[in-house]
Amino acid sequence: MSIDDKKKERFLFLQKMYDTTDGNSGYTVDMWEVGTELGFDRDKTRNLVGYLRDEGLLESKTLRGGISITHAGIIEIEYSLTNPDSPTDHFLPINVIHIENMNNSAIQQGSNYSTQNVNFNIDKSEDLKKIINEIESVKEQLTLDRLVFEELVSEIETLKSQVKSPKPKNIIVTESLKTIRGILEGVAGNAATPMILTMIDSMIK
Q1: Prediction pTM value
Q2: What average pLDDT does the segment 37-66 reach?
Q3: Quick one: pLDDT at residue 124?
Q4: pLDDT tens, position by position, 72-88
């Protein structure tokens, strides 16, 4: 693969991260799901994330592949989108990027170089609200370390913001639910926990 092709794929991945998070560095998403949506295998995804992380454009958040776009990454993408004829420190001019033989291409050549997304199924919104309500009703009863409890609260707030969003992102909802599931799986003694885990499993299966 040529250097230019590598730069194109790096741009695709970072652009997908930007669009998925709406340019918000506070969101954590699953790197493997981003790679899958772009048609990349795990080795390619791992290499792309490693490069972008080393360049300070992405940041690792969890050991399971949770990543976020950094402020520097946001600046890089926004410069590319507003100056499509100019290269950046890491990428070719967006106008010369041509995507060939790539499934689920992240770039739609045209008016604003918008990114294709898999949005959260609006039909599942009511089920998601039920999960949020159930977790809210039991969170104070859970025996959790302070930092773990704060992480749980943060993920609940992320889910709430996605429910309110006109375009909730499936990948953000899924990552938050996975994190919450991991927290609840480590909790014993609350009768409501198994039911919540079942609800989460049915949502993200």
Answers
A1: 0.57
A2: 91
A3: 78
A4: 999 999 888 888 778 88
The domain spans of the chain are: 3-96, 122-204
The dihedral region occupied by 113, where left means phi > 0, alpha psi between -120 and 50, and beta the remainder, is: left
Which tokens sit at 5? 């092709």
Domain with residues 3-96, CATH architecture:
Orthogonal Bundle (1.10)
List pLDDT tens digits, range 18-50. Answer: 988 888 888 888 899 899 888 899 999 999 999
How many CB atoms neighbour CB 23 within 10 A? Answer: 16
